[in-house]
Design a protein that fits this description.
- By secondary structure, the chain is α+β, with helices and mostly antiparallel strands.
- The chain is about 50% helix and about 15% strand.
- It contains eleven helices and 14 strands.
- A five-stranded mixed beta sheet has the order 9-11-12-14-13. Strands 4-3-7-5 form a four-stranded antiparallel beta sheet.
- Strand 11 and strand 12 form a beta hairpin.
- Helix 1 runs antiparallel to helix 3 and helix 5 packs antiparallel against helix 6.
- It is elongated, with a radius of gyration of 44 Å.
- The C terminus is likely disordered.
Amino acid sequence: MKLATRLCLFFLTALALVLAGFSAALYLLARAHLERQAAERLEAALDTLAAAVEVEEDALEWEPRERRLTLGQDAAEEQPRWEVLDGAEKVLGRSPNLGASALPSGSSWLSGRRQLRSERWSERADLPEPVRARRYEELVLTAAVSRAPAAAALRSLALALTGLSGVVWLTAAILGCALSRRALAPLNQMAQAARATSAADAEPRLPVSATGDELEDLGHAFNDLLSRLRQSFERQRRFTGDASHQLRTPLTAMLGQVEVALRRDRPPEEYRKLLTRVHVQAGHLHRIVEALLFLARADAEATLASLEVIDLAEWVPSQLARWSDHARAADLRLDLADGAFLVHAQPLLLAQLLDNLLDNALKYSPAGTPVTVALTGVALSVEDAGNGIAPDDLSHLFEPFYRSASARRLGLGGVGLGLATARRIAAAFGGTLTVESAPGRGSRFTLRLRRGEGLTSAAPEVQ
């Protein structure tokens, strides 16, 4: 189906819905107005009857022969019908257009009832019988108006709206389809211009559907352009996300130390100690920045050139010692086999990778449960006894900024960059980072690196 045809159908469908909605709204408004008018006529009829009742100090008097009412004289449908009853529901009077029949009721009539009662009723036996006969303690005024005129008006309105909407829709169908075909004619030229656009002129990505029309051609042209720009944008996005994640901790530590020092005057020795700690943190921060800049390059996924041979059997215990001040330091376990475990890696980045895995394991496992760091050959694993990861989340776990629904539900902090950074560091070492998990059984992250035998000299650390 051509795009012009689809647009025309969409436009006509939308127009049909608008016309239907407008007609329905107008019809409902007209019906409400006519109902309100009928209710007002009914209320006016009851007011007229109430005005005909003479209210004495101790009784209500109804004498229709003395007060001739013009209400209900005409037998037309729009004229109200009425009855006046006493407290025992005895008919005292009715409108001439009602005759001897009862007051009409049903869905085609709108009826109302008003009750009048004397607050100081007295029989007054001293009054003549004719006077006492027209005195009442309670009067019930009833009236009804016909809905037939309103129904006839609504039927005429419905026919008029249907006919007018049909004429408008047919006119729009003829003109709209012609304009749609004319407006979409330049799409082929737009596709050629998109292919010639440089990478600096990025536009939003267009969805491409297998429709076989001009829009598909244009979508492929824009997607070809965006594929040339994707790598550049991806580098910028990764660097921004990784930098914010990796730099937060040392910056927070430095700011915290400075804020504590500024709370009160201190001896020069304390300021010297503070500056020494800040200098160490700044040096660590500098090394992280340099490493992130290196990873942000286009070939960040390739193997790093400046790698050292590291014995994990000695290196891992020293890294775990850095976690001794953590609130859950007692939960950390080390499963270390005898022998040397030599791998190619860069110490700073490898430490960052291990820290990310440990932080993740401690964050998503209950306090008091073990977090085990195990070494098997050149495989380094971090295993926790937490809630585990749902199968649907495993395939997205290493995507930047991805956080599972369970993690968001628990309200734990994080931006979803730790595992993405860890996998990119592993890839930079020429290794792999995998995960095994099941809900309710915890998770195990395994890092596999290249063996370090055969390297004659250690490469310098990335600064």
